[in-house]
Amino acid sequence: MADYDYDLFTIGAGSGGVRASRIAAAHGAKVAVAEEHRVGGTCVIRGCVPKKMLVYGAQFAEDLEDCRKFGWEIDNPQFDWITLRDNVLADVTRIEGAYTDTLESHNVEIFKERAEITGDHEITLASGKVVTAERILIATGAQPRLPDCEGVEHGITSNEAFHLDELPKKVIIAGGGYIANEFAGIFNEFGSRVKLVNRGDQLLRGYDEALRDRLLQISMTKGIEFKFNTVFEYIKPCDEGGYFVKLSDCDEERVDLVMFAVGRTPNTGGLGLDTVGVELGDNGEIKVDEFSKTNVDYIYAVGDVTDRVQLTPVAIREGQAFADSVFGDGKPYSVDHSCIPSAVFSHPPIASVGMTEGEAKNKLGGVRVYQSDFRPMKNVLAGRSERSLFKMICDASDDRIVGIHMIAPEAPEMMQAAAIAVKAGLTKADFDATTAIHPTMAEELVLMR
Q1: How far is it, in rounded angstroms, from Cα 198 to Cα 151?
Q2: Which terminus of the chain faces fewer neighbouring Cβ atoms within 10 Å, N or C?
Q3: For 359, phi and psi rounded to 5 degrees?
């Protein structure tokens, strides 16, 4: 047996890499991890965690407006972006410390520098230090994709959005996915004029059409402007500040900020993967089997860098499965990537699990669709016309629920429990037999007819 410095060397300390490293160490492996930025990765440092905090902050804009109908009088409420920004960043630092403590408490050695594979079982750190490992795990995540247009360097991505020194009075956001829609809602609630520009003809591909249409209607009512089938021609700095932006079907306009949210590409550049012959896919993703192993026997990859499902909980599950399977005493197992619930933290949020109505019809043929279209009680009293929509998709042959989709306040919180039912293969009759909790929005799940 060859002697190695480590049983496992993980490149990337995001959600998947941290989980895999911690679990492998708990199984008795000698583990090291290298992270060139900050421990915690995209989700903790510049993704879902700080973004959700901004969503919470943005929601107060509507809550403060609605509270008057509930008897509260708040004179001249003021919003201070810097206070929220700094508090969010401080909490990100706190969580980063917790992640670091978790690794260190499991005796995982942390190298806060870039790492590159430079030979068989060999890793070279930015400092020049060379180490060896019996197994190498790549968990470097993904990075924002940038479009091909003149002046693209003048725009920002979600990475920089958390560090702005001031809120833009007018912002253009490029993209139609969840990141674009979430930040459109955030900036709009904070008082910015928002235009969302999409090169395609629809928002949130992959989500149920009825929910996408409902979000578009509500967002337009809130004042967000949408442009479809449109691309950027150029972005140029303006002497007075801000930028001149020319879209393909619009006159030139001046804005304070341009943000790109047009997808994410796997972080595989400069890792030395070609040195040992690791196979990549068309999008630059690392190709792996069901057990997260690459074509090189001792190299594995988990999370967004594999481009399987770019969600933090999926990366964590993949990291756990890898560590248990390779270093544990039990039988190796893989992650089931089917029927994964997801959410869009828009205003209001969307949550979804399973097949959409269109997907179910194409795959199953016969389906039954149940809907509940209603105004939440809070909106009724507040005088807010915004309506929520729940959809349940069932296989007509056996009544099995194959999809649930909702757009409503707190939809992601409700969906977590509902997703268990869909994953377990429960039927519409099982939901019908469950007593409702009244009055709640969630009761609509068991009352749909």
Answers
A1: 18
A2: N
A3: -65, -40
How far, in Å, CA of 138 to CA of 20, rounded? 10
Active site residue 438: yes
Question: What CA–CA distance (Å, rounded) separates 137 from 329?
Answer: 19
How would you write 309-347 as a 3-class SS string?
A: CCCHHHHHHHHHHHHHHHHCCCCCCCCCCCCCCEEECCC
Residues 42 and 113 reside in one and the same domain: yes
Q: Contact, 326 vs 337, CB < 8 A? A: no
Q: Over range 57-82, report the average pLDDT.
A: 95
The Cα–Cα gap between 437 and 310 comes to: 34
Distance CA 335, CA 289 (A): 11
| CB distance 146 to 152 below 8 Å | yes
CATH code (residue 39)? 3.50.50.60
Distance, in Å, from the CA atom of 113 to the CA atom of 6, rounded to the nearest integer, reads 17
Residue with tokens 């040992």: 276
Whether residues 269 and 256 fall in one domain:
no
Q: Quote the CA–CA distance of 25 and 327 in Å, as a whole number.
A: 9
State the Cα angle at 187 between 263 and 77, rounded to 5°: 160
Catalytic residue (one of 37, 163, 337, 438):
438
Q: How confident is the model at residue 449 (pLDDT cuts 50, 70, 90)?
A: confident
Q: Is the pLDDT of residue 2 over 80?
A: no
8 Å CB contact between 13 and 109? no
Q: How far is CA 64 from the centre of its chain?
A: 28
For the cut 60, the answer to whether the pLDDT of residue 22 exceeds it is yes
